[in-house]
Amino acid sequence: MVKGEQAYINLCKYILQSGTKKEDRTNTGTYSVFGQQMRFDLSEGFPILTTKKVPFKLVASELLWFIKGDTNIRYLLENKNNIWNEWAFEKWVDSNEYTGPDMTNFGNRSQQDPEFNKLYQSQMDLFKEKVLTDNDFARKFGDLGSVYGKQWRQWKTSQNETIDQLKEVIESIRTNPDSRRHIVSAWNPEDIPTMALPPCHTLFQFYVADGKLSCQLYQRSADVFLGVPFNIASYALLTHLIAHECNLEVGEFVHTLGDAHIYTNHIEQVNMQLGRDRRSLPKLVINKEKDSIFDFELTDFELINYNPHPSIKAPIAV
């Protein structure tokens, strides 16, 4: 197994060299490969990229949002996390209640037209303020539908009951560690139409051996430059938290990708990142006084000795 983030670096190089040019629903275009896998030994350090800064607090607050079963971006905005804004904003500007400037294809236009970008930013600021201060508006436009948190904590059954998958999988790891059914699924076909974005990281499975907890994630669609670094850090953090609750050490995080792609407007940024040297991985420190993952807050995690290269900005495809 390659060390540290080298698996990610190798994936980027492989897509640039061998990826197929494909169109996509965002009309941006990608270079794509199918069926890839990365492995990270969590005992070597916390697998957050060092060739560009990944904002750990955003990773952690998003994961806590999932764990809480929340689907409204208000919690994220309260924690200065803007990574889901565009999907909620799109619902607002496409509604009959929106009366501002035309925001059609705002993702691409904001990158190409400086004057439009000013309009877009002003409307986004207005949207965020209304989500934070107007309860009715937040309920209507801040909610993303039955996305990850809803599926993890309140999976809807045909009997009009709900299943707390996350709680059940933790109990299963505790009481039957050798089970092959430590699985949580976010892909619920019935709920896809009610989701702002169908889940990209669709299913994860835990595995216990030699007193260590490992996790494998299957991700159907992987934005390798922007999204995948978050996904790696998020599921590594989740594995650490569940291992802590179940009195286990951490093993591996295995990341299996379906459509792994680099957007055509991220090529320059990827090449910049590939030109940088890798640095030592940091160490994750967790507040050991808390026993349950459902009790953790942002102040309960810290990365020690995280010394990455500067962040690299790129447009998000919506």
TrEMBL record:
Which pathway does the UniProt entry assign to this protein? Pyrimidine metabolism; dTTP biosynthesis
Where it sits in the cell: the answer is: Cytoplasm
Q: Which GO terms describe its molecular function?
A: thymidylate synthase activity
**Record-linked InterPro entries:** Thymidate_synth/dCMP_Mease (IPR045097), Thymidate_synth/dCMP_Mease_dom (IPR023451), Thymidate_synth/dCMP_Mease_sf (IPR036926), Thymidylate_synthase (IPR000398), Thymidylate_synthase_AS (IPR020940)
Task: Indicate the segments forming the Thymidylate synthase/dCMP hydroxymethylase domain, all copies.
Answer: 6-318
Q: Which reaction does it catalyse?
A: dUMP + (6R)-5,10-methylene-5,6,7,8-tetrahydrofolate = 7,8-dihydrofolate + dTMP
Question: Which key words tag this protein in UniProt?
Answer: Cytoplasm, Methyltransferase, Nucleotide biosynthesis, Transferase
Q: Where is the active site?
A: C200
Q: Which PROSITE patterns match?
A: THYMIDYLATE_SYNTHASE
* Enzyme Commission no: 2.1.1.45
GO BP, one example? methylation
- Tell me the PANTHER family matching this sequence: THYMIDYLATE SYNTHASE, THYMIDYLATE SYNTHASE 1
Family, per the entry? Answer: Belongs to the thymidylate synthase family. Bacterial-type ThyA subfamily.
Query: What is known about what this protein does?
Result: Catalyzes the reductive methylation of 2'-deoxyuridine-5'-monophosphate (dUMP) to 2'-deoxythymidine-5'-monophosphate (dTMP) while utilizing 5,10-methylenetetrahydrofolate (mTHF) as the methyl donor and reductant in the reaction, yielding dihydrofolate (DHF) as a by-product. This enzymatic reaction provides an intracellular de novo source of dTMP, an essential precursor for DNA biosynthesis.
> Could you identify this protein by its name?
Thymidylate synthase
Q: Which gene encodes it?
A: thyA
